[in-house]
C-alpha cells in the first residue's frame, strides 16, 4: 500500500536517465524499504494506529526539506484544492489506521498484498468513469484477484476469525488508499509529491492521534527504535526512492516491482514471527500479485 503520495509521472527520455542499474536498485530498494515497515508496526510498544501517527509526525520536517530541495511550493494552494487535500489526508489517515490494525491481526504477506489493492480499485474506477467494459486482460486480472483473495481469506479463516478480520482491515485500507489517490489526482501535477506529502502529514497526523486516543492505545513509546525505523524506512527511504524512480519506468514494471513487498513481508514474517505459508497460500499470493501487476499497467 505503500506508494502513497508518489505520482505516476511521465517516463523520462532515455538520454536523460541515470544508469539503468541505479534506477532498478532505487525501484526495488524502495519497495523493500516499504515492505519492512509492517515489521516495525508489529514490534512497536505503541498501539498500531499510534505508530502511524509517529510515522507521519516524525517525518514531517524532513518532508518540508525535501519539498524545498525539489523546489515544490508549500504555500499558495487555492482554498478548494486545500480542502481536497485535507479530505485526502483524512482518507489516508483512515487508510493507515486500518492497515496498521490489519498488520497486527493477520499474516504480514496478506496485509502487505491486500493493502496494495488500491490499484485494482482504480482499474474498476477507470471502467466506470469511461463507461467501458473490461478487456480480456482486465477480466483475467479481476478473476485472478477474486480467486487469490478467496484463497488467502479462506486460509486465514482456517487459522482464526481474528486473522480473517485482519485481512478485511487490510482490504479496507486498500480501498481507502484508492480514494486517497483519486482525491489528490488533480493537485499532484501542480504542487509535486513532496509538497503534497507535507500537507497530508499536517492534516493526517492529528487524525491518527485522535483515533489512537479514542481506541485507548498507548501513544508515547518507551522504546523509540521501532517508530524511528518506521518513519525512516517507510516515509523517507521508501518514499524517497519511489518518488525518484517512478518517473523512469512504465506502469507495468512498477506493478511487477510492487510484488517485492509481499514477498519480503512473507519472508521476514516467517523468519521473525513463524508465519508459515502453504503452497495454497503462495498460489493465492501469485494470483493477487498478477492482478496487481496488470492493474498497475492499465491504470
Give the helices and strands, then pairings.
Blueprint lengths: L19 H24 L4 H22 L9 H27 L2 H8 L2 H13 L5 H24 L1 H23 L1 H7 L1 H22 L10 H22 L4 H8 L1 H14 L5 H20 L1
Helix pairs in contact: 1-10, 1-12, 2-3, 2-9, 2-10, 3-4, 3-7, 3-9, 4-7, 4-12, 5-7, 5-13, 6-7, 6-13, 8-9, 11-13
Q: What does the model show?
A:
The protein has 299 residues and is mainly α. Helices cover 78% and strands 0% of the residues. It has one domain (14-298). The chain is globular, with a radius of gyration of 18 Å. The chain starts with 19 loop residues before the first helix and ends with a helix. Mean pLDDT is 85; it is low at 5-11.
**pLDDT < 50 stretches:** 5-11
Average pLDDT: 85
> Main sheet?
none
Span between termini: 15 Å
- Count of the separate structural domains: 1
H/I helix tally: 13
Topology as H/E string? Answer: HHHHHHHHHHHHH
Identify the overall geometry.
globular
Radius of gyration: 18 Å
- Count the beta strands: 0
Name the helicity range. over 70%
Overall structural class, as computed from helix and strand content, comes to: mainly alpha
Amino acid at each position: 500500500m505503500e506508494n502513497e503520495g508518489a505520482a505516476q509521472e511521465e517516463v523520462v527520455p532515455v538520454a536523460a536517465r541515470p544508469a539503468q542499474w541505479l534506477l532498478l536498485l532505487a525501484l526495488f530498494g524502495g519497495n523493500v524499504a516499504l515492505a519492512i515497515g509492517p515489521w516495525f508496526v508489529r514490534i512497536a510498544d505503541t498501539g498500531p494506529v499510534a505508530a502511524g501517527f509517529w510515522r507521519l509526525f516524525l517525518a514531517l520536517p524532513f518532508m518540508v526539506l525535501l519539498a524545498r530541495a525539489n523546489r515544490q511550493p508549500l504555500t499558495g494552494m487555492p482554498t478548494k484544492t486545500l480542502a481536497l487535500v485535507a479530505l485526502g489526508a483524512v482518507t489516508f489517515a483512515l487508510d493507515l489506521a486500518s492497515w496498521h490494525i490489519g498488520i497486527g491481526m493477520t499474516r504480514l504477506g496478506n496485509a502487505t498484498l491486500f493493502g496494495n489493492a488500491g490499484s485494482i480499485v482504480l482499474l474498476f474506477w477507470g471502467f466506470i468513469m469511461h463507461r467501458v467494459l473490461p478487456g480480456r486482460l482486465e477480466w483475467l486480472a479481476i478473476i485472478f484477484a477474486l480467486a487469490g483473495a478467496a484463497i488467502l481469506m479462506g486460509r486465514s479463516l482456517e487459522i482464526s476469525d481474528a486473522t480473517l478480520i485482519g485481512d478485511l482491515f487490510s482490504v479496507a485500507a486498500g480501498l481507502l488508499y484508492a480514494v486517497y489517490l483519486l482525491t489528490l489526482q488533480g493537485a499532484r501535477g501542480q504542487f509535486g509529491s513532496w509538497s503534497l506529502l507535507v500537507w497530508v502529514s499536517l492534516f493526517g497526523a492529528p487524525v491518527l492521534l485522535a483515533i489512537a486516543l479514542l481506541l485507548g492505545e498507548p501513544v508515547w513509546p518507551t522504546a523509540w527504535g521501532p517508530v524511528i525505523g518506521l518513519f525512516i524506512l517507510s516515509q523517507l527511504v521508501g518514499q524517497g526512492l519511489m518518488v525518484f524512480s517512478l518517473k523512469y519506468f512504465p506502469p507495468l514494471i512498477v506493478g511487477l516491482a510492487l510484488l517485492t513487498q509481499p514477498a519480503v513481508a512473507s519472508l521476514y514474517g516467517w523468519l521473525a514471527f513463524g508465519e508459515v505459508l502453504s503452497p495454497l497460500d503462495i498460489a493465492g499470493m501469485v494470483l493477487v500479485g498478477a492482478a496487481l501487476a496488470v492493474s498497475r499497467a492499465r491504470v
